[in-house]
């Protein structure tokens, strides 16, 4: 249905795509697989009309096309659903679906009845039981994802590109999404599916296309392929992580939390966290697992001082009490947080790599109001080298880097602040298997250097691979504590759903 022939795309002399050749087949899920920085997003922007200045040829149903805009690509039947959804929270479902494509009466006014009815039909087709009049802001992320698909179906898109569609939705919402994708396949549409979650690719994809360093490496049917096969083709080598075996009983307790509780923001009678107590020792990696709504992120935010007026309990760092009243207090005590949403909360995307890295230590780098640029440059060069950050220089904008490299910048800015404890909330969300491996090795190295590390993750294999000890949470409480060497997926999941 859609074919790319010798597509090459350059940015300021850097080749992002180099002679890319691939084909997306009708009635199939075509998985695009590759590391961050492999060229997946750039290719999708070329195919959907975002980038027009490229070399090569695009064929749609055998006809040569060259789109001048995203709108033109949509009108020809190519829709892209980005990882960051492009919906307007303050508008209704109907208004979002028809934005820019409104139905009007012959005298020029909006035909709201017709638009509402068509929106209702699309929602019913996609098995989404929400009112067309509901505000987008009132919907869950998974429901918003379905509204994005409804927008694509409104113009009868023949090629639907989904970029990391399951990165922020629950298991039940993933099942619904997969049902929708199956129905799209039966209608003969070509679904292009980008994801770093290899397990779900083996569930939903019919074909694979592997990109590496801006080049197409291989394509074919998923039948007969294994995860190891895919990983080798993605990164060109085997990846593994060596689990640690170490006794921490005699190590110093570096952080102690006692009876940590957090009141609900809107319902003052309810609790988001209830009576949580634990300790972290020097050099230990403490994994925290729980299902959606368990309170994992809220726990890290509370310890970091982000909810000062709603929390209670006692927190000690190396025996010194923290009031949990502000992030600046936590940072000064050596406790730092790499947040779940690195784009929104971890980085200033419009600033360069250098500035992002040194924001927490500007005071140390300044004298009489002047920044010591030589010292700053040395720190930036050090962490770009040590963390293997792929950037043209410290002057490159942070927002232009891949997810894995952005995460490394978040880690490097905190490492520059010389912390004692690093809290990592979903540190590998949305990054590829090779970048994950590098982050894992970095976490292990930091723990080996004596830092205390708390890691929250939705991925059980990640928790099991990294953690020396595991806390399991459900509905704002700790339901189990396990040794990392003896924990199993079955035991953790039972504790996460509150089963004995």
Please explain how this structure is put together:
This protein has helices at 40-47, 70-75, 93-98, 112-125, 141-154, 171-186, 198-204, 227-235, 296-303, 327-333, 342-346, 353-358, 362-365, 373-386, 403-416, 433-448, 460-466, 489-496, and strands spanning 2-11, 14-24, 29-33, 55-60, 63-65, 78-81, 159-163, 190-194, 207-212, 215-221, 253-263, 271-281, 285-290, 311-317, 320-322, 335-338, 366-367, 370-371, 421-425, 452-456, 469-474, 477-483. The protein is an alpha/beta fold and 500 residues long. The strands form 5 sheets. It has a 6-stranded mixed sheet with strand order 6-7-8-3-9-10, sandwiched between helices. It has a 6-stranded mixed sheet with strand order 16-19-20-13-21-22, with helices on both faces. Helix 4 packs across helix 5. The protein is globular and about 70 Å long. The termini are far apart. The mean pLDDT is 87.
What brief labels describe this structure?
six-stranded mixed beta sheet, 500 residues, 18 helices, alpha/beta
Strand order of the largest sheet: 6-7-8-3-9-10
Number of helices: 18
Could you give the count of β-strands?
22
Mean pLDDT: 87
- What's the story with the biggest beta sheet? 6 strands, mixed
Q: Ends: how far apart?
A: 51 Å
Q: Specify the structural class.
A: alpha/beta
Q: What portion of residues is helical?
A: 25-40%
